[in-house]
Write a sequence for this structure.
């Protein structure tokens, strides 16, 4: 009885811990309270940074979230991926690199989607190329990058990742082959 | 400020076009945007607090010497290493990068930091292993780290200063 009660309390506690939002808020309050207690003279410095950063990004982030939502609603990742499944050869790597830039979405949704492509017979390099250009180029986040780091840096970095995704994909494929057990060793 | 007004107008315009084509899809888009935003906001607060604490206690000279200065390769390697262990959402990495830029970090180091942060992430490795297997995860993360370093050096050579 008590054991069971303990266990439900434990899982509820763990679930709350896994909630990133709650955790972030608690950690923020904890930090601010600690500074107030130990070194209250520095608190205004900290809160000033929080305030100026927040007011600086809030409208850009709001617009970015609208873009993210629209892309999620209108661009169907699985349709794109199904199309790519039919491609092969070096052309498939170029298409994969472009398609990776178009796919948006969180990691936990994109990984299984790209895995399904691999299950349908796409080569390992294609999978790695998509993951690289998906992670490296975030079209909806471009306004944020330009606002903080400037146009020149943003263009340079995004072009470099798109170009790099293909050699990265090929190298990852080679790496997987090297890690594969030899025929003679496998049973 | 003027920039963010432009983005806001663009976002509202895109919403209006979307709504004129498909109301239900637009509502779904708005809802998913709101959800992402509410997930992100507490995390941003936390990261901004950390930035404030760095501003209060870490001197500019320390960051400038580590991620700026003359040693491009050293700054890039350090940037890539920090990005690998940083547990930062992609949308939050850019404000942090802007903060480090203000502290004198150079473009190459920032480039390597952003790339390793969005492409590696210690937290996601167990998930990657589960979905793609350990051979793929190991190979991809090592190759990606090297690529982040190479890209960082390329950015640093093309663009030595901001």
């Amino acid at each position: 009885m008590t054991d069971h009660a303990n266990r439900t309390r434990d899982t509820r506690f763990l679930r709350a811990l896994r909630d990133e939002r709650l955790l972030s808020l608690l950690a923020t309050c904890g930090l601010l309270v600690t500074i107030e207690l130990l070194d209250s003279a520095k608190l205004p410095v900290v809160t000033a940074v929080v305030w100026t950063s927040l007011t600086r990004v809030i409208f850009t982030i709001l617009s970015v979230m609208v873009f993210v939502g629209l892309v999620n609603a209108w661009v169907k990742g699985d349709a794109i991926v199904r199309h790519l499944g039919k491609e092969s050869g070096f052309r498939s790597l170029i298409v994969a690199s472009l398609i990776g830039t178009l796919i948006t979405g969180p990691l936990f949704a994109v990984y299984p989607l790209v895995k399904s492509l691999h299950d349908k017979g796409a080569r390992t390099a294609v999978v790695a190329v998509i993951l690289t250009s998906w992670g490296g180029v975030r079209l909806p986040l471009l306004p944020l990058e330009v606002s903080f780091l400037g146009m020149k840096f943003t263009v340079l970095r995004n072009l470099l990742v798109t170009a790099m995704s293909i050699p990265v994909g090929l190298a990852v494929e080679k790496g997987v082959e090297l890690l594969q057990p030899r025929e003679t060793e496998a049973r | 400020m003027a920039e963010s007004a432009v983005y806001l107008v663009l976002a509202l315009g895109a919403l209006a076009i979307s709504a004129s084509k498909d109301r239900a899809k637009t509502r779904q888009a708005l809802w998913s945007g709101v959800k992402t935003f509410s997930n992100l906001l507490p995390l941003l607060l936390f990261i901004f607090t950390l930035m404030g604490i760095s501003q209060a206690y870490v001197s500019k000279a320390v960051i400038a010497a580590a991620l700026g200065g003359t040693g491009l390769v050293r700054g890039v390697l350090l940037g890539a290493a920090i990005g690998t262990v940083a547990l930062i959402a992609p949308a939050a990495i850019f404000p942090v990068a802007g903060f480090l830029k203000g502290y004198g970090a150079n473009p190459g180091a920032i480039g390597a930091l952003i790339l390793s942060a969005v492409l590696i992430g210690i937290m996601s490795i167990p998930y990657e292993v589960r979905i793609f297997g350990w051979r793929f995860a190991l190979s991809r993360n090592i190759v990606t780290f090297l690529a982040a370093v190479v890209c960082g050096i390329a950015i640093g050579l093309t663009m030595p200063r901001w």
Chain B has eight helices and no strands. The longest helix of chain B spans residues 23-57. Residues 58-158 of chain B form one domain.
